[in-house]
Design brief:
Layout lengths: L2 H36 L4 H27 L6
Helix pairs in contact: 1-2
Length: about 80
């Protein structure tokens, strides 16, 4: 595998790992927006979910340099 191929593989893995928390934040905020518009009372829970997902995203981003330093992983 060439260095370029390794970089592409790393970028794909990082993208995959970051997609879930981004989707969770987006969904929770969209649901909170709907709750606010309808006068619902679940906004606090939805915002808490968004904050937890944002924290997971932040942790994944913080770990990214160390993961890059360890690339490629040992087989």
């Amino acid at each position: 595998m060439t260095p370029h191929d390794e970089l592409v593989a790393f970028a794909r893995k990082a993208r995959h790992d970051l997609q879930n928390p981004v989707a969770a934040v987006t969904l929770a905020l969209e649901l909170a927006q709907d709750e606010i518009a309808s006068g619902g009372d679940e906004v606090e829970d939805l915002v808490s979910r968004a904050l937890r997902s944002a924290e997971r995203l932040s942790e994944a981003l913080d770990a990214l340099p160390a993961r890059a330093a360890d690339w490629p992983p040992a087989d």
